[in-house]
Amino acid sequence: MSSRTRFCLVAAPVCALFLIVGWLVFMWTVARVEVEPDTFLVVTHRWGQALPDGEIVAPDASYQGIQRKVLPEGRHFLNPLFYSFEPHPILKVPEKFCAVLIRKAGSELSPERRTRGDYLARSPLDLDEPGERGIVEQVLGPGKYRLNPHVYDYEIVPAVEIESQQVGVKVLMWGKEPPKDRANPYVVADGERGVQKSFVPSGTHYVNPYLARIVPVDVRAHTVVFDDIEFPSKDGFTIEPRVQVRYKVAAEKAPELFVMLCEQGVLHQQDDTPEDQHKNPILQKIILPLMRGYVRIEGSKHDAREYISNPKDQSDKDAKRINPRERLQVELMAKVRPEWEKVGVIIDYIAVGQTRMNPLLEELGSQIREREQARIARKTNEQKVTQLDQEKELKSTEALANQRKMVIDANTKLEQAKTLAQRRTGNEKAKLEAELESAKARLDGSKQRALAILTAGKAEANIINAENTATVAEMKTAIEGFESPGHFAKYHVLRKLSPVLSEIFASDTSDFARLFSTYMSPGELTSRKTPAAQSKTSPKQASEESPRKAPPTNGN
């Protein structure tokens, strides 16, 4: 292999490697595009097929020019030799708002639709797909959207808020033409151009203002007072009652009522002030005309005194009558309410209040009050007499009842005392009987114990007497063995002393010791016993009473 061939084999991979590295460096340093958050890129293709006539945006990536599809946030690689780009902020639609889109690029509307005045783009809304030019029928709700500014223009419009006490009347400005021979001339069927028959419920609605309009209608109850209603009474007086009406708009009739009464597309429903009531078409065109007519017809059937006095304060027979004001409001509810409900106004109640007084009615009222006061005074006196009779009868009844109660209480206490005495007597008797039985038992026990003590005492006395008799007999027998009782006593003394003296003077031979020699041998005292006495002494006594021999003394 030649050197040139080897050079080519080595140079080709190296060149390829350099090209790849160079391409990567080029793409990373030159073609790399970082798209920031809340931003997107609109890309323009430098090469490709020429755009069709009338188009300002490339239908797809094979055409040169502005591309319809945009690039989202992130990292992208765009070769500047083939593409150019421009960043745009995303569209942020806030809450309670929506975005109406105008598509600037796309297919043209058909001549037939333009002839009918239909300029809405009815193709489905897809921001990356082509569609018809014009105002897009659908709207964008709250959120973020990457909207190509070369394809779409937009308009932020507020959403329609229908509160809880309201319904919406929808006016469709685009749609098929309603038939001229429809049953209801005020509203049209849903989908036809005009005021829709169905009402829109409460909530937030995102509506294209070029396609439709939703007008809120208040359906809560309103209370209004009329002070300008007057009518003549049966006897020729002018009666000016204070009439209070509570009404509300029927939700299902709100579209029809809106068409009949709206002025410049608005239905004025405020009724807080006289000016508002004068501008309120529901009051001025529906409620007041019927109210005035029926009040005049029904109210003129009664006299003026029935409106300024209360029949229920008269006699019992008159009190059964219905107040003419109550009868008037009953008649109004029966006759006026169905007429109002036909046009969509619901009446909760009608209250006819006190009549406003004029000079003639004041004079008539003073006469009626004087008569009423006299009647009330007479009735009060009658009631007082009746009350006194009732009090007298009541006190008599109470006295008899108290007397019967005292007798019953006394008898009850007597029976209770008797029962208590009997109970106590029985208790004491039982207690005494129990104590008597206990005393008898204790007495018998005491007798038994005394008898036992007496028997034991007698036995002990007999034993003691026997022992004393035996002791005396022994002592008498022992004394009889001596000459005299003195010798007997002396014998016993010396018997106790002789052993001690013998030990003391055992080796003493002096004269002094001989003085005690007689005391060291008590046997001498018994030497003179008579034979009879000795015979009477028992062998035991003789051995006990035999005198101890005195120890031999020196010289004896």
Descriptors for this entry?
single chain, alpha+beta, 6 domains, 4-stranded mixed β-sheet, 13 helices, 20 strands, about 45% helix
What does this entry show, briefly?
The chain has 556 residues and is α+β, with helices and mostly antiparallel strands. The chain has helices at residues 3-31, 111-116, 254-261, 274-279, 281-299, 305-308, 316-319, 324-342, 359-480, 485-504, 511-515, 531-536, 539-545; strands spanning 32-35, 39-45, 65-66, 74-77, 83-89, 91-93, 97-103, 120-121, 134-140, 143-145, 152-158, 160-162, 166-172, 194-195, 203-205, 212-218, 222-226, 231-232, 238-249, 345-356.
Plain-language structure description:
The protein is α+β, with helices and mostly antiparallel strands and 556 residues long. It folds into 6 domains: 16-89, no CATH class; 90-158, no CATH class; 160-218, no CATH class; 222-356, Tetrahydropterin Synthase, Chain A (2-Layer Sandwich), CATH 3.30.479.30; 373-468; 481-545, no CATH class. 46% of the residues lie in helices and 19% in strands. Strands 8-9-7-11 form a 4-stranded mixed β-sheet, with no helix packed on it. Strands 17, 18, 19 and 20 form a 4-stranded antiparallel β-sheet that branches. Helix 5 (281-299) packs across helix 8 (324-342). The longest helix is centred in the C-terminal third of the chain and has 122 residues, at 359-480.
